[in-house]
Amino acid sequence: MEFVDQIWVYIEPVWNWLYTGLEMYGPLAADGSVNWVHFGIQAGVIALVMALVMQAYGAILIFTIVGTIVHVVVDRVLPMVREGESFVMPEVTNTGFWQYVAFLAIFYLVAITILSMIQALIFRGD
Fold first, then answer.
1. Which residues does 20 contact at the CB level (< 8 Å), separation at least 6?
2. Are 94 and 66 in contact (CB under 8 A)?
Protein backbone atom coordinates (compact mmCIF):
# COMPACT_ATOMS: atom_id res chain seq x y z
CA MET A 1 0.00 0.00 0.00
CA GLU A 2 2.99 2.26 0.33
CA PHE A 3 3.24 2.50 -3.44
CA VAL A 4 -0.40 3.59 -3.74
CA ASP A 5 0.12 6.18 -1.00
CA GLN A 6 3.12 7.58 -2.88
CA ILE A 7 1.10 7.87 -6.09
CA TRP A 8 -1.87 9.40 -4.25
CA VAL A 9 0.39 12.23 -3.01
CA TYR A 10 0.66 13.40 -6.63
CA ILE A 11 -2.88 12.61 -7.71
CA GLU A 12 -4.74 14.10 -4.73
CA PRO A 13 -4.20 17.81 -5.57
CA VAL A 14 -5.37 17.21 -9.14
CA TRP A 15 -8.39 15.22 -7.93
CA ASN A 16 -9.33 17.97 -5.44
CA TRP A 17 -9.05 20.62 -8.17
CA LEU A 18 -11.25 18.64 -10.56
CA TYR A 19 -13.74 17.62 -7.86
CA THR A 20 -14.27 21.28 -6.91
CA GLY A 21 -15.64 21.91 -10.41
CA LEU A 22 -17.88 18.85 -10.18
CA GLU A 23 -19.27 20.04 -6.83
CA MET A 24 -20.02 23.48 -8.31
CA TYR A 25 -21.57 22.48 -11.65
CA GLY A 26 -22.36 18.77 -11.46
CA PRO A 27 -25.72 17.24 -10.52
CA LEU A 28 -26.47 17.78 -6.84
CA ALA A 29 -28.47 15.61 -4.46
CA ALA A 30 -30.93 17.00 -1.92
CA ASP A 31 -28.22 17.26 0.75
CA GLY A 32 -25.94 19.32 -1.51
CA SER A 33 -23.47 16.54 -2.31
CA VAL A 34 -22.74 15.24 -5.80
CA ASN A 35 -25.51 13.01 -7.15
CA TRP A 36 -23.36 10.17 -8.48
CA VAL A 37 -26.34 8.17 -9.76
CA HIS A 38 -27.54 11.00 -11.99
CA PHE A 39 -23.99 11.70 -13.16
CA GLY A 40 -23.27 8.02 -13.77
CA ILE A 41 -26.39 7.42 -15.84
CA GLN A 42 -25.95 10.54 -17.97
CA ALA A 43 -22.21 10.11 -18.48
CA GLY A 44 -22.48 6.34 -18.92
CA VAL A 45 -25.02 6.60 -21.72
CA ILE A 46 -23.00 9.28 -23.51
CA ALA A 47 -19.74 7.34 -23.14
CA LEU A 48 -21.37 4.11 -24.34
CA VAL A 49 -22.75 5.79 -27.46
CA MET A 50 -19.40 7.45 -28.17
CA ALA A 51 -17.54 4.14 -27.77
CA LEU A 52 -19.96 2.31 -30.06
CA VAL A 53 -19.73 4.98 -32.78
CA MET A 54 -15.93 5.30 -32.64
CA GLN A 55 -14.37 3.10 -35.34
CA ALA A 56 -10.67 3.52 -34.54
CA TYR A 57 -8.87 4.47 -31.35
CA GLY A 58 -7.07 7.26 -33.23
CA ALA A 59 -10.24 9.32 -32.93
CA ILE A 60 -10.32 9.18 -29.12
CA LEU A 61 -9.57 12.89 -28.67
CA ILE A 62 -12.36 13.92 -31.02
CA PHE A 63 -14.85 11.65 -29.28
CA THR A 64 -13.68 12.87 -25.87
CA ILE A 65 -14.34 16.46 -26.90
CA VAL A 66 -17.70 15.60 -28.45
CA GLY A 67 -18.74 13.63 -25.37
CA THR A 68 -17.79 16.54 -23.11
CA ILE A 69 -19.73 19.03 -25.25
CA VAL A 70 -22.78 16.76 -25.36
CA HIS A 71 -22.64 16.38 -21.57
CA VAL A 72 -22.55 20.15 -21.01
CA VAL A 73 -25.42 20.65 -23.47
CA VAL A 74 -27.51 17.97 -21.74
CA ASP A 75 -26.75 19.64 -18.38
CA ARG A 76 -28.27 22.86 -19.75
CA VAL A 77 -31.22 21.32 -21.62
CA LEU A 78 -32.36 18.80 -18.98
CA PRO A 79 -33.75 21.45 -16.54
CA MET A 80 -35.63 23.02 -19.46
CA VAL A 81 -37.29 19.70 -20.26
CA ARG A 82 -37.93 18.55 -16.69
CA GLU A 83 -38.98 21.73 -14.91
CA GLY A 84 -39.70 24.08 -17.79
CA GLU A 85 -36.93 26.48 -16.77
CA SER A 86 -35.51 29.02 -19.17
CA PHE A 87 -32.17 28.52 -20.91
CA VAL A 88 -29.13 29.65 -18.93
CA MET A 89 -25.74 30.05 -20.57
CA PRO A 90 -22.82 28.28 -18.88
CA GLU A 91 -20.56 30.54 -16.86
CA VAL A 92 -17.57 30.29 -19.18
CA THR A 93 -15.70 33.03 -17.33
CA ASN A 94 -15.76 31.08 -14.07
CA THR A 95 -12.80 28.82 -13.26
CA GLY A 96 -15.11 26.29 -11.61
CA PHE A 97 -16.88 25.69 -14.91
CA TRP A 98 -13.58 24.84 -16.61
CA GLN A 99 -12.67 22.57 -13.72
CA TYR A 100 -15.95 20.75 -14.37
CA VAL A 101 -15.22 20.54 -18.09
CA ALA A 102 -11.73 19.16 -17.34
CA PHE A 103 -13.29 16.55 -15.01
CA LEU A 104 -15.69 15.55 -17.77
CA ALA A 105 -12.93 15.38 -20.39
CA ILE A 106 -10.77 13.09 -18.26
CA PHE A 107 -13.79 10.96 -17.40
CA TYR A 108 -14.76 10.57 -21.06
CA LEU A 109 -11.19 9.84 -22.13
CA VAL A 110 -10.96 6.97 -19.64
CA ALA A 111 -14.53 5.71 -20.07
CA ILE A 112 -14.50 5.68 -23.86
CA THR A 113 -11.10 3.97 -23.85
CA ILE A 114 -12.31 1.21 -21.51
CA LEU A 115 -15.58 0.74 -23.38
CA SER A 116 -13.74 0.64 -26.73
CA MET A 117 -11.47 -2.09 -25.41
CA ILE A 118 -14.48 -4.09 -24.24
CA GLN A 119 -16.14 -3.55 -27.62
CA ALA A 120 -12.99 -4.76 -29.41
CA LEU A 121 -12.94 -7.91 -27.27
CA ILE A 122 -16.60 -8.70 -27.83
CA PHE A 123 -16.86 -7.81 -31.52
CA ARG A 124 -13.63 -9.26 -32.86
CA GLY A 125 -13.35 -9.24 -36.62
CA ASP A 126 -12.18 -12.85 -37.05
1. 96, 99
2. no
User: Which residues are within 8 A (CB) of 28 and not within 5 positions of it... i.e. 6 or more apart?
Assistant: 34, 35
Secondary structure in 3-state letters for 55-113: CCHHHHHHHHHHHHHHHHHHHHHHHHHHHCCCCCCCCCCCHHHHHHHHHHHHHHHHHHH
Q: Crossing angle, helix 36-53 and helix 60-83, to 10 degrees?
A: 130
Indicate the SS3 state at residue 1: coil
Q: Are 34 and 28 in contact (CB under 8 A)?
A: yes
Digit-coded pLDDT (tens) for 10-64? 999 999 999 999 988 888 877 888 889 999 999 999 999 999 999 888 999 999 9
CA 50 vs CA 42, 43, 68, 89: distances in Å: 13, 10, 11, 25
Query: Rounded to two decimals, what is the model's pTM?
Result: 0.88
With vertex at residue 59, the alpha carbon angle to CA 57 and CA 65, rounded to the nearest 5 degrees, is 125
Residue type present at position 86:
S
